[in-house]
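REVIEWER CHECKLIST
Item 1: Sequence provided? yes
Item 2: Single chain? yes
Item 3: Sequence as submitted:
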Amino acid sequence: MVSLFCLIATFINPFSYKIYLEVLNHFTTNLSGLIAEWVPPLDYQRVLVAVSWLILVLLNTFFRKNTFNVILISFLAVFAVMARRNLPLYFLTIPVLISEIEWREWTRHPFPVLGLGLYICLFTVLLAPKAITKITNFSQNYCDVGYVHYPCKGVEFLRNATGNIFNTYEWGGFLIWKLPNLKVFVDGRMPAWKGENNESPYTSWLNILQAQEGWDKKLKALDTKYIFISEGTFLDLELKDNPSKFGYKEQFREGGSVIYGAI
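Item 4: Structure as written out by the authors:
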């Protein structure tokens, strides 16, 4: 009965059953061929996942006898092997599962303890420090620190702007947050969506960013008022010397970002 109520509760959202269509899109779209973070993990990371999964399954089978934990860690392990973006979730779940095991049982079996301790040390040394540092620094200064440096000065320049904007993919969510009056071309939700000719919006975005043939016509057809991208990209190099040729004018260039406005 509880499971049934939990299932029904998932439909109480602005999108109702369509959230499951979004899940289906992600399963049926080859994101590993589009987004770097969706590519499979490295070989040594796969080995770490396999070894830790085996240890946890054995511990939960013989000590805790918790079927749910075995199913959970197996489910997360499969997703971790499929895409490196899922590795943090998998590894962060391990301490939670370990904490549920009776420690007095461990003292009778020292070898699993030593093996798991060695694994945790390897994980800490090889995977954690750099990623954790970047994440903790993000809240202090998201403009200059973290995985992505956000174009805060460019955002200030466009503070009162309206219309459609072609943007760098990694900035999509940030621009939606900071510039709600502008309609972005792409953001992190869209790679699994289906656009024209059943093509992912990310693929369309990549073709334009690479200044492939017809890119300017696509932007014109979408009534694009601004191009807000990173400096040095193919599209920036295409526009830089003579933006008026394509119907744009350079309006801002600073901090690794550049803005072209339609004329």
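Item 5: Key structural point noted by reviewer: The radius of gyration is 24 Å.
Item 6: Recommendation: ____
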